[in-house]
Amino acid sequence: MVYDVAVVGSGFSAIAVSVHLLRSLPASASIAIVGDDPAFGRGTAYRTEFHLHRLNVPAGRMSVFPDEPDHFLQWLERQGRGISRDEFASRGDYGLYLRDTLASLLRDRPSRAKLDFIRAKATGCVRLADDGLLFQLAEGESLQARAVALCLGVGTADLPLRDARIAEPARRRLVRNPWRLKWLSKVKPEETVSILGSGLTMIDQVLTLRARGHRGVIHVLSRRGLVPHAHARHHGAAVLPDLPDDPLTVSGILKALRRQVRQGAEWRTVMDGLRPRTQALWQRLSPPERARFLRHALAWWNIHRHRVAPPVFEQFDALLRDGSVKVHAGFLNEIGFRDGRPCLAYRPRGGRDGVSLPVDWVINCTGMERAGIGHSPLLVHMADQGIVVPDGLGLGLRVDGLSRAIGADGNALPGLYAVGALTAGQFWEITAVPDIRVQAQTVANAIIAERAVSVA
Ligand SMILES: Cc1cc2nc3c(=O)[nH]c(=O)nc-3n(C[C@H](O)[C@H](O)[C@H](O)COP(=O)(O)OP(=O)(O)OC[C@H]3O[C@@H](n4cnc5c(N)ncnc54)[C@H](O)[C@@H]3O)c2cc1C
C-alpha cells in the first residue's frame, strides 16, 4: 500500500503529528500510523491506569494544539474532572484525551484524509529510487510512503545497565524495564527493593509499590543521589533570564542563573523563564560545551527542570522522612548474589570503601533520557544504509532546524522528519508536550507544504 504520509510510532508525538495532518490535508490524501504499542496513542507516559501517576506539567500547558491552550482543560471539564490550569491531571486521563482528540477528528470522516492504523513494528526501511521510503514491518508486510515522520520516542526495550557486572542468579530478580508492569505483582509486601536511578521514573515506581501494599524498605541508588524537586503550589511569574553573550558556556549560563537567584528571584521562576529559550541556547553552545553540559550539569538540570506535582512530591517526601525510602549516592560496581538474594556492591560518592547492600529486587530506572539509536532495529537499519545518521552526542538522530533527518551524505532526505526525544541533539528541550506539540505542528505543516502537489 502506498501512503502520502507514514507516521511511525504510536505515542504522543505520533498523535500530535497526525491530528495536525488531519486538520489540514485534503480528503484525497492518505496517512498510515504504524505503531507497535497495544495502548495506541499513549506511549510509555500515558498508558498508566494508576490515578496517582500525575502529569508533571500543569494542565494548562498540555493541550495538544499550541494555538488552543485550553483544549485539554476543556476536555477535562467535559469529563466532569475539571481542574485549574495550574493543577496536574492524571497521566491516564491525558492518554484518554489524546485518544478522544484523534477520534473526534476522525468522526468527521468524509472531509478528512484517509487514516489507517497499522499495528506493527517497523523493522527496516529502504529508500526508493523514484519517491519515498519503503518500510518493512515485523509481520513480513511492507508499506510505502512519500513523506515520513519518525516518532519513535526513547524506546521501551530493556534499558541498559551500564558499567556493572551482574551475577547470573541475580538476573531473575532484576527488572530491566520497569514499564512492563508484571514485576509489581511478584514483589512481596515485606521484601526489600532497590531502585537504580533517582529520577521521575523512580518516584513513579516507589509510589506504585506503596499503593499496592508494599511495606519493605526501598533503597534508591544513583551516582549523585539527587531526586527531582517539586513544582511550587502557587506559580510565580517566569523571570526573564539575564544571560551572557557569545561565546556561550555552560558555566556562564549557570553563573548568570545563580546570580538571579541570589538577587531574590525564586529559582523555579528562573527555570521557567529559561525554558522557552532553552532550544535557542542549546544551539548557541559549541559541541564541546554541549558535551560538557551532559557530563557535568545533566543531573542538576534534570532535578530542577523536570519537577513533580506537589501532591506527588509530598507523598514521596513523607516516605523519605519516615526512612522507608533511603537514597544513596554512589557508583554501582556489581549486582552479586549472596545467601539467595541479589546484593548491590557500590562505592559511595566521595568514599573509597565499597558497600554491600543485600536486597530482594533490583529495579532499573536509569537510562531513559538518552535515546541514542541502538535500541531501535529500525534506526540501526536506516543508519546502516546512510538514510539517517546518529547525532554526535549519542542522543538520537542528526536533524536540521526543521527536524529533517540528515543522511550520511550530509543532506536532508526530502520528506523524512523526526519528532520528539530523538531530535534532542539539535533541540535538547524536546522531551515534553509543550515543546513536542510545536515541533509536531511544524513538521506536519512542512510535510503538507512539501507534498502539496501530490495530495492536491
Ligand atoms: C513516565 C513518563 C511520564 C511523563 N510525563 C510527562 C508529563 O507529565 N508531561 C509531559 O509533557 N511529558 C511527560 N513525559 C515525556 C514524554 O516522553 C512525552 O510527553 C511524550 O509522551 C513522548 O512521546 P513520544 O511519542 O515521542 O514517545 P513515546 O511515548 O515513547 O512513544 C513512542 C512510540 O513509538 C512506538 N515505536 C517505537 N519504535 C517503533 C517501531 N519501530 N515501529 C512501530 N512503533 C514503534 C513505541 O512502542 C511507542 O509507543 C513523560 C515521560 C515518561 C516516560
Describe the protein.
With 456 residues, the protein is of the alpha/beta class. It folds into 3 domains: 2-155 and 371-455, FAD/NAD(P)-binding domain, CATH 3.50.50; 165-229 and 307-364, FAD/NAD(P)-binding domain; 250-305, no CATH class. Helices cover 32% and strands 20% of the residues. It is built from 14 helices and 16 strands. The protein has helices at residues 12-24, 43-46, 71-78, 91-107, 200-211, 250-262, 267-274, 278-284, 287-305, 310-321, 377-384, 424-427, 433-450, 452-455; strands spanning 2-8, 30-35, 114-119, 122-127, 133-137, 142-150, 165-166, 174-175, 193-196, 218-222, 325-338, 341-348, 355-358, 361-364, 404-406, 412-418. Helix 1 (12-24) links the parallel strand 1 (2-8) and strand 2 (30-35). The radius of gyration is 23 Å and the shape is globular. Flavin-adenine dinucleotide binds at residues 8-14, 34-37, 43-45, 55-57, 91, 121-122, 151-154, 156, 204, 376, 378, 420-421, 431-433. Flavin-adenine dinucleotide binds next to helix 1, strand 2 and helix 2.
